[in-house]
Amino acid sequence: MSSLRHVQRCLANAQAHHGLNAFISLADRSFLEAAAQKVDSIREPGGPLNGKLIAVKDNICTSDFPTTAASYILKNFNSSYDATVVRRLRESGAIITGKTNLDEFGMGSHSTFSHFGSVKNPHNHHAQQPPSAGGSSGGSAVAVATSQCWASLGTDTGGSVRLPAAYTGTIGFKPSYGLLSRHGVLAYANSLDTVGILARTVSTTRSVFAALNAHDPKDPTSLPPSTRSRIAATTTTTASSSSSAQSPRSLRIGIPTHYNPTELSPSIRTTWHATLARLHALGHTLHAVSLPSTPAALAAYYVLAPAEASSNLAKYDGVRYGTRAAGPDARGGAPGAEGQRGAEAEVLYARTRGEGFGPEVKRRIVLGAYGLSKGARGNYFLQAQRVRRRVQEEFDTVFRVGNPLRMGVGPGELHGGLQTAGQGKDGREGEGVDVLVCPTAPGLPPALDTLRERNPVDAYTNDVFTVPASLVGLPAVSVPVPNADNSSAEGEAFPFVGMQIIGQFGSDDLVLDVAQALEEQIVNDRA
Amino acid sequence: MQSTTKLLHDSSETHRAVFICHSCLRTSAVRRNVRRSFFNSAIAREEHIAPPELGATVPFRKLLKDELKRQKLRGESKKSKHAPANRLLEKWELTVGIEIHVELNTAKKLFSTAATSTNQPPNTHVAHFDAAIPGTQPQFQKETLIPALRAALALNCTIHRKSAFDRKHYFYQDQPAGYQITQYYEPFATSGSVVLYPHDGIAELDHPSITIPIKQVQMEQDTAKTLHQPPSTHLLDFNRVSHPLVEIITEPVIHHPATAAACVRKIQSLLRAVDACTLGMELGGLRADVNVSVRPRPQLGQEIALGQRTEIKNLSSFKAVEGAIIAERDRQIEVLEAGGSIDGETRGWTLGGTQTTMLRGKEGEVDYRYMPDPDIPPLLIGNDLLHHLQMTMLNLPDDLVMSKLASTPYGLSVLDAIVLVATEDGDRLEYYMELVTQLQGLLSAEEFTKARAGKLAGNWVLHELGSLLATSDISWHDQPVKETHLASILVRLIRREITSKTSKQLLAMIFNGDPRPVEKIIEDENLSLRPMSKEEYLSLAQNLIAENGDMVRAITEKNQKGKIMWFVGQMMRQGEEGRMEADKAKKVLEELMEL
């Protein structure tokens, strides 16, 4: 297909699905068509991204569109530079179609906390009430699900790529932390923030991943070449240890027994079991694994992510950029000098930040600031750091491969890492597992109008399956699997369930291999 | 930039040549009337402690530290009987801790490749990250570590192999990110010290020296410059944002305002000497915050917790440090005397003012919500870098004086050098160096070397003149023996024109007010040495040996060699005034007793 035709189809879809509110900024038709024609005019075959439309979540900087993070405070902000991931997309020949809607600064699970209005899910199983598209990368997921673009970039801090993928029936891939550059990504919680990819097929996901996966000296957390080659060595070791020449070889699939909360919906449970059965049929073996810190991981996440958010969002004061409240917004002389004319008048930036941030962002800033405060830090922030470390150690005990970040460079140590990996403390015999398979979310997408009745803590529990991989920086992908639940009304209404594949740090290719095998089997089933 | 670099270079050249801060010397022009027993103790010490040779192996500061430790062990009080005039100061004791922010001498900012600058047009040296542009991340500039490490080494700190950066949160217009990147949980250097001497300008009550422990040294970012344009406009210049700083935090151990000022001054001079910083306080290169508290003065053996402290921020001169502390001390004492209590608040001080003013009350206290910066990996400092810096570091001012005094023409022992440096605001050192210069002019090079005149002069300044001072009511600054007097005496002694005894006699005469020139006294009193002949020595010695058979037997049979000095003493007493030389007498005696 020519690029022009691809662009025109996407634009037609964009027009048809305008009401889903997937985009905050969309490029002009004429601009996109001209760009496509230019690609088509060059006879040389480009790479897989050449001439393709890719949408970018609006918390990733672009020099040609505003970058709003769906916030009032940045509604008119124009970045002077492209994020490294955007630059790499352009260098691969991709055309940026526009900026997608999201939860403000990435904080939310349903893409409803946006200054530009909620994103709506195209799969409407609730009849009159549109379901949640998931968040925070809901716009990117919907744009892909409705073919308004070829692929899109999202960001995943605690599940923000995987959850909307699960809710919209798309592939949502969160690579290992540090593989894709965050330079130009507006920080929410930088120790967790990861650029992710949404696409309709695993092979598209792979192509985009390959274009972006490189060291970036502008991001101090970008893995340097030395670590990347160590990861490569680890995965090579795994591959050679497998005698099978087939692709995919027989893998050991882990089933986290603690990922089975009471609130798991019947559709999800049934589809999970069906998915495991499919994998077993493909020749993989299934193994129960124990990750007992899972509930604590969710709590730790909701201490750490808001703490970092309260820090990262302190820069939005309206002084150098962004929307600023009218009138003076500074301390009014010495405290008490103005009498009791309202405490707000005496707090610097209180008006700008009060007007500029939405309710969820404010809630998380307050939560995070509390967790870091003098009296609470020990019980909250520092305790959460310890939980995070424990979660990592638990993951390391279940995987066959050692964590390359926790191994020395020397081959001896590498060997040692391999030997200790997989020795579960439950006394499990033999090797560890290659990947974990579990649901992406505990339930099907809720109707948007029921969300308002939920309290924030209920909303946060929705992230229980996605947060552990985020805390440890593991690669994880959500794959849509046909809903296997034929018994309940819910099951009949919604066509698919997101299943998550999680791998050891650096096993990004393996995770995508399993996703692809699953995807192929589903396609074969349909045929 | 060119001219700036040059200027800074010149100033460091000048500094290298100076061995004692000139302003110290100037302030010492105000003569003080203090007496101490430091000389006696210094002399007494020599009997117990063999002075270590000043070799390349033992750094001066370590020797000094050891010496001060010994001094402390002996329980020598640093306090003189000199009581403060003010009754209230007798009742209340001041305690001060200091935090000093120093702009490091670096080409780039701490976390961006933007150039550092001092007098460039506003907002011309600002990287995206410095202005907290969304999506940007810190890029630690490792070169900034070099002056930071030099500073920490100059302050005798323990350097930690691993340290980390944290965010300190507060909103202010000069702080674009809403936080400052600093080192809170794991600073790169801790447990240092700086030693202050009279020539540093410390309070008399802290003489002869005081060691100020340095709690920690941390790297951090500077803030923007704010230009307030009344009534409500603040202009911001981000050139200074993220200029690398070190913050130096002392323990709260300082009890005198002058010593606090001296501490800041000394730290400035140390850091300039090792090229860690370029601009002085007067140009904004250093800023100090002081924590001030008062408590009832503890009696011997009594322990009283420090009082509630207040913080006085942003002091930009040594004078301001001293002035602000005095004013705040007096304010706190006044409040406490009136039965009030001190609130933990932040206060300000304007130079020329008489009172500190409240900036922020306790209720306005900021919780900085320290958080490790997730974007910055831990800082690892290799031993190879540390070694290299230690090897290539410029000499510190005190080290320079010491190594100079240990080498030709001076050739002093470490202990003598310490005493010279540590007393009389450096005046005695200057006196000594002038004396040596004069001796070099009066003696031939050969005479000077053979007599080890530098060391001899040191003995005379410290011990001969020192013991006269110690047993009289005359202070150093009032004593009448000038360098020319002493040079004149020593030249004659070296040339054996007078005996050792005569030379001491001459010194005592001039010390006690004899106004005549040395040569006139010698002439008038007939003190010139007219050497006795060998026969005269022999005849005196033979008589003494014949009269004291028991003593001779004790020496020759019981091997009590020390008793020979009794004979020498007898010969000196019996011999003609000013003609008998002890060493010759001893030699003759030994010959006769066949020793």
What is the compact description of this entry?
Chain A is α/β, with parallel strands linked by helices. In chain A, 39% of the residues lie in helices and 12% in strands.
General description of the model:
Chain A: GO terms for molecular function: ATP binding; glutaminyl-tRNA synthase (glutamine-hydrolyzing) activity. Chain A: This is Glutamyl-tRNA(Gln) amidotransferase subunit A, mitochondrial. The complex is a heterodimer of chains A (about 525) and B (about 600). By secondary structure, chain A is of the alpha/beta class. In chain A, about 40% of the residues lie in helices and about 10% in strands. In chain A, helix 1 packs antiparallel against helix 2 (about 30-40), helix 9 packs across helix 11 (about 360-370) and helix 9 (about 295-310) packs across helix 12. The longest helix of chain A has 21 residues, at about 380-400. Chain B is an alpha+beta fold. Chain B contains 21 helices and 16 strands. In chain B, the strands form four sheets. A nine-stranded mixed sheet of chain B has the order 2-6-7-10-1-11-12-13-14. Chain B has a three-stranded antiparallel sheet with strand order 5-4-15, with no helix packed on it. In chain B, strands 3-16 form a two-stranded antiparallel ribbon. In chain B, helix 15 packs antiparallel against helix 16. Chain B starts with a helix and ends with a helix. The interface of A and B includes residues 184, 186, 219, 321 and 335 of A.
What strand line-up does the widest sheet of chain A have?
A: 1-3-2-4-6-5-10-11-9-7-8
By secondary-structure content and strand pairing, the structural class of chain A works out as: alpha/beta
Approximately how much helix is present in the residues of chain B? 40-55%
Q: Briefly note the structural class of the backbone of chain B.
A: alpha+beta
The strand line-up of the biggest sheet of chain B is 2-6-7-10-1-11-12-13-14
Mean pLDDT value of chain B: 79
Greatest chain-chain interface?
Answer: A-B, 48 and 36 residues
Distance between the termini of chain B: 77 Å
Number of domains of chain A: 2
Query: How big is the Rg of chain A?
Result: 23 Å
Cα(first) to Cα(last) distance of chain A is 24 Å
Q: Radius of gyration of chain B over alpha carbons?
A: 30 Å
Unreliable residue stretches of chain B = 1-59, 74-85
Shape of chain A: globular
Task: Tell me the fraction of residues in β-strands of chain A, as a range.
Answer: 5-15%
The biggest beta sheet of chain A is recorded as: 11 strands, mixed
EC number (chain A): 6.3.5.7
Catalytic activity (chain A): L-glutamyl-tRNA(Gln) + L-glutamine + ATP + H2O = L-glutaminyl-tRNA(Gln) + L-glutamate + ADP + phosphate + H(+)
GO molecular function, one term (chain A): glutaminyl-tRNA synthase (glutamine-hydrolyzing) activity
Function (chain A): Allows the formation of correctly charged Gln-tRNA(Gln) through the transamidation of misacylated Glu-tRNA(Gln) in the mitochondria. The reaction takes place in the presence of glutamine and ATP through an activated gamma-phospho-Glu-tRNA(Gln).
